[in-house]
Write a structure and sequence with these properties.
Blueprint: H1 6-12, H2 14-35, E1 41-46, H3 49-61, E2 66-71, H4 72-77, E3 88-93, H5 99-111, E4 116-121, H6 127-131, E5 134-137, H7 150-167, H8 173-177, H9 180-199, E6 205-210, H10 215-229, E7 232-237, E8 253-258, H11 264-276, E9 280-286, H12 287-291, E10 297-301, H13 313-326
Parallel strand pairs: 1-2, 1-3, 3-4, 4-5, 6-7, 6-8, 8-9, 9-10
Length: 343
């Protein structure tokens, strides 16, 4: 039965994980406020899901400061891609022990000896936690399952929190996140029947589209589908879909679009093209953004001033989970994967 899977329990545990990470951030908020400003240059790094976290996080931080995201392996192999100056090194790792992330952090420390390390992890006492000058912990984010679900959403909230600390004096940050756990619970409840329905349709191909801060989310949605369902799936920047990817779209394709709150006319045109191709569309966004576009299925997210990105996670996590169950797969233990990649 689905209730036996750790994955579904951990998806449903996201509200508690979000509440816990905000409490953890509140404890280091004075140090963050003292350290960070609009002049800060960040370098985010991680592997797999943690890299996709970094992509979304970097997009958020670029609204108030300067940021680059790079896979841990690329920080080791191609350091010439990095900026001349980095003030804050921010490695991301659920376990805090991913070998490439640890090595990348050490290499970045050597390259930028004056930089401060903010280590984002779900594991206190891990290598990344101990390497950090200011460790940031998601204390309820760790999981039994191989796939990352509540760890992803809870660590994702961190970047919006940090951005708000930079943007303000930090005094209103805690209040701004107070309703996030209850909003997450609402999204999970509303999403469940939609994703069960879609999972029963057994699409052969799935495509996830996002722009700006939602591109990292689309990439993570692709990874969750690959891991849990062992199926063909891709992620693209939304409007790049026309530039080649639409060649594979047909009636056996599900196209999911994570809507930003801007350029909705362009999003609506793209979704109209998806419909013309015969593919099924799923739009994820707020009531205002959903009104501006047309789609076969929609999942409405609550309107929030801050802390909105973690709410995009339950729709694609539940979709992949129910597709795996429909296919008779165990979503807790994807083939060829382990929870921590240690070399």
């Amino acid at each position: 039965m689905p209730s036996e899977h750790a994955t579904i329990r951990e998806i449903n545990d996201q509200p508690a994980a979000l509440e816990a990470v905000v409490e953890s951030l509140d404890r280091v908020k004075p140090r963050l406020h003292e350290l960070l400003s609009g002049e800060t240059t960040f370098c985010l790094t991680g592997c797999g899901t943690s890299y996709y976290l970094s992509l979304s996080g970097s997009a958020v931080l670029n609204e108030v400061a300067s940021s680059i995201a790079i896979p841990g392996s690329e920080a080791l192999v191609s350091p010439h891609q990095l900026p001349e100056v980095v003030d804050v090194i921010l490695p991301v790792s659920r376990s805090g022990e991913s070998t490439e992330t640890v090595r990348a952090t050490e290499a970045l420390q050597e390259q930028y000896p004056d930089a401060t390390v903010l280590g984002l992890t779900c594991t206190e006492g891990s290598t990344i936690h101990d390497l950090a000058d200011i460790p940031i912990l998601s204390p309820e984010g760790d999981e039994e399952s191989v796939v990352m679900t509540k760890s992803f959403s809870s660590m994702l909230a961190t970047f919006e929190y940090i951005a708000r600390v930079i943007e303000t004096d930090g005094s209103s940050v805690t209040d701004g996140f107070a309703s996030l756990p209850s909003d997450s619970e609402r999204v999970i409840s509303k999403t469940d029947p939609v994703t069960r329905d879609l999972a029963g349709q057994k699409f052969e191909k799935s495509v996830f589209l996002g722009s700006g801060e939602t591109f990292g989310i689309a990439s993570e949605a692709m990874l969750k589908a690959e891991e849990m369902t062992l199926s063909w799936t891709k992620a693209y920047h939304t409007l790049e879909f026309r530039h080649g990817p639409q060649s594979i779209a047909d009636e056996d394709t599900l196209v999911t679009v994570f809507l930003p709150d801007r350029q909705l006319d362009l999003q609506a045109d793209l979704l109209a093209d998806v419909d013309d191709l015969g593919a099924t569309s799923l739009a994820v966004g707020t009531a205002e953004t959903l009104k501006a576009v047309g789609s076969d299925y929609a999942i409405e997210l609550p309107e929030r001033d801050i802390g909105s990105l973690p709410l995009y996670a339950p729709p694609f996590q539940l979709l992949s989970y129910y597709r795996a169950v429909e296919a008779g797969l165990n979503p807790d233990e994807p083939q060829n994967l382990t929870q921590v990649v240690e070399l």
